[in-house]
Fold:
Amino acid sequence: MVSFPDAVKMFFRRYTDFQGRSRRAEYWWVVLFNLIIEIVAFFLIGVLGMIGSSNGEPGPLAFIPLGLLVLYALATIIPSLALIVRRMHDVNLSGWILLAAFIPFVNILVGIGLFIVCLIPGNVGANKYGPDPKDPMGATADTFI
Structure:
């Protein structure tokens, strides 16, 4: 099982790695990490926005965490795409399917499909995208028959 800190380290270490496979745990730990970052940033935006606010507009300090959140989002676009592609590889799907997410109206179906892909377990044993990340010995499914 991949731990929370290990998953976050792998997320940033495999920054542009679109090859290989990633486990469900790695994907969902990173989703949780990004959610925590967003919650903290929005909390800070709300708190700092009250300082010096007037006429219902946020104070100038609110733009500091907002700017940091935007920079974090821009910095994690590529590793997020790489992680989703590796997750798709784990269930033996091509990462090129992700390009369909940029087609209007089709992107809704692709989003639902990607969510389902991220929920199902990966293939047991090696597939065409690499060895099973759960099996450190590299055994294939037919080894146990």
